[in-house]
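Hi R.,

Here's the chain you asked about this morning:
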Amino acid sequence: MINIKPHPKFSNIYIVEDEEAERLATKNLVPGIKIYGEQLYKFKDDEYRAWDPFRSKLAASIEKGISDVPIKEGTRILYLGAASGTTSSHVSDIIGEKGKVFCVEFSPRVMKELIEVTSRRKNMIPILADARKPSAYRTFVETVDVIYCDIAQPDQANILVDNAEFYLRKKGKVMIAIKARSIDVTKDPTEVFKKEIKVMEDGGIKILDVKRLDPFDKDHAMVLGEFI
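And here is the predicted structure, written out as tokens:
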């Protein structure tokens, strides 16, 4: 016996309750279709997809108590590092048919998997491009409300700032999963996070919240900010 209820803080995000545990979920935009082997739940007239925080840094940040998730129905999002579509597909669920997520991915091999996901989800636009060169995809991307950044690059904060200057509206929000070991394996992760946050602040981003993602992702932090 399961029960599914809305998340108490965030819209279009749900909690699945059963006898064993509670877990995050999103309402499946494409019923019957899994993306990464996740559990599907039928409840009343809808279908929901389990959202694994060990597979998604955005889900992990919710489990760790991030103060806000600025991704809602109708939101326009630039997603840097969409990979094969695990988290970006849940974002697609949240924003619904009125929203749009521009999915930038650099790897042609991974892009093949992403295209398979986006072929069934009309609110996802796959873009094979290098996030370090935001001008290269200006033909495909409009002004957005949110930038979500999950890229394993040593200059990931600079990449986020550059993309914000191109595409993010004023007062728009950013979320970046900072991967300390991708930036400097010799330094303590806390020092790396502070350095990347300084880059963001210098680039006009006001920091709203920071959450370490352990134990879901070791040496990672999610930073929430506002482009001022």
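One quick note: The domain at 58-227 is CATH 3.40.50.150 (Rossmann fold).

Cheers,
M.
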